[in-house]
């Protein structure tokens, strides 16, 4: 599992989030470290206090149990926080950031001595077993070696160390439980000097002064309070909830381990060395373990020491890592490699651990480092009390009590050991903070995250690309070293010292096993990890390729069952990827056999859920003969098939397109002419009004003179008749001229001609008046007008469109006029509204008539109904209705949108009704509605107020 980049403190994007790679059992094993590590402190405690050590540890066990349960509660709220208790304390004390950093680093100081302390224990164990042989023990070399070996494994990743830790914890906890249970059972059945009561009477009779109690309680907290280490790995756990549940088990195991161990170690012995755990454990276990006591104690100490060191190496870097993420210390400590190795934090932890060797013996190291640890726990209880109102805090008032108790123990106990060591212990977290400040400011490459990130992301050098030579050298060294050590043991160790030889063999085997794991971590495991990473990279690239390929890619098993599919399969097959897995491919494709082995390499099939779609299937050869997997590529070739069919008719299609193009060109030319004509319509009203005025003057002149001409003609005709009566006998010339001009016909036809001219002139006057009424577009002011005049003017202009023609019947206009008062309006604009609506009605009726004639071969009765009504003496309504085809709801909803038209290209601009809506609604404060359904005609309702408000139109 790869780590994920995160943004750490100071916007650091070079750190990584720890992977949740640890199993529940691996995290549980870390929770038993302090239980098993009790053997390092208990011998000295019991040697000094005897049975009083049981009473001394009782309150510590109670506080430790409550501490475990409280940490468990915090872990449930902060599941993504690594490091456990010290980082919880820093978060509780976030309002006191300086104190929070000090507390967390105090906890770090307390644990950083663990590898050195247990290296000293192992060294003492080897030293005791080498003394009978007279062999000098290389103490410093062994201490440094045992300290370093766990760090070697840690640099290969937490998972390797966790697995090794899990194997170590089983024999360690079994040995410790056997020691406690067998020892208590033996004490309960023994008489005399080894009984329960005798232990209390002989070693518990002396009273313990408060200073001594505080002094040894100070030491005991180093183990009793640190049983909550499981919480350090909540952020690494695959199941944080189950990991935290182990804290309950660890709590109830504490009385048996801490009190039971003390009871057994309180037996009278001749051992006076408080720092030698081996001699103390050996002395008290011989009565119930007999001759196996030495071997079992050696096994317990060896495995427990390596276990505790491994736990510390895992816990300490996580404390620094979380502090860095929270912005308390330098960002460099938040850098994690791709394998989850906290390299900068590990290096710093290693340096701090080795420096603890400077303090010398076991007791002084514990006193100095435990000062910071106990100060951390004390401040942790203070933080709980300060945050007592928060839901994650339990027993706040008890925490205040524990804070007071621990503050007293810290001061009295620490000073009782040594005021110099006490002061050093208090200053160590501050020294680390000073060092951290220097790291932040010094521009040295290893002090900054980018340097570590570059190393983590760099490719392996040529030396490490091939590990075969390195592994051969390591195997040769191990073989030669093992042979040399075996020869040395066989030649220098006296066979009479069987027990000591066996003890050394146990230590040697455990150490060699640990070293072997360390060597494997630096040789074979990187190879395995590289192979795994390469496989993951290849899988990711393959999946990425599948996701980006537009074609459908399916992986099938030998039976044709889909085992993997890319996202394109969802679009093609119409089923989400998760539902495709486990189904047969022939469920989706037609004409396909069940077994892929019988399929052609390339074939065409139709989709069962969409038969008109054709796909091309390409089947690859089997890439894995064992699994018999097939990769099938599906490509939708429906468009290609359609293109092939289209090409077969390309000649006819091109000819048809050429014809249509020619026709379209003509239509475009007509449309261009119409658009030009439409542009002229804005000034047409003024032109018509001017022309009408100019025509009206001579027409009026002619019409007026026709009356006089008629009178003059009558007078002349009467004069002619009078001449005929008075002079009946005219000359021959006159009679001939009368005959030529047909005087009788002239006398009859001249009055008729003058009357026809009078009727024609009157008609011209009416037409001119209509044009003037319709073309009032130049009037800027509202005037009271007769709406009916505007309607009649419009109908007169449309008369040619309404009358019967060769292939069209007459459109009948039914008028239902109400008696209307004069309406204040822009007469010319309203006439434009009437014109657009009536013209659209005429177009719709003509289209309906043509379709009707084509369908039924008979003429269609077209009717336009115009109805006017006076409503409540406040406004008038004009309804213009036709019996045309009507319109759909979608068309009706968009009817008044600009540039929307249902007419063919070139037949309409789509602006007519939009302008009508603007004139009626915006300029006249009225309403314009369309009432229409398919097949039921169309009706436009125009509603206009009789009196206009001043604001309207301006």
TrEMBL record:
It holds the Pfam family PAS_8. Keywords: ATP-binding, Coiled coil, Kinase, Membrane, Nucleotide-binding, Phosphoprotein, Transferase, Transmembrane, Transmembrane helix, Two-component regulatory system. Its EC number is 2.7.13.3. GO terms for molecular function: ATP binding; phosphorelay sensor kinase activity. The chain crosses the membrane at residues 36-69, 102-121, 133-155, 162-187, 246-266, 288-321, 341-359, 365-386, 395-416, 422-442, 463-489, 504-525. Residues 647-681 form a coiled coil. Residues 538-583 form the PAS domain. It catalyses: ATP + protein L-histidine = ADP + protein N-phospho-L-histidine. Residues 690-948 form the Histidine kinase domain. This is histidine kinase.
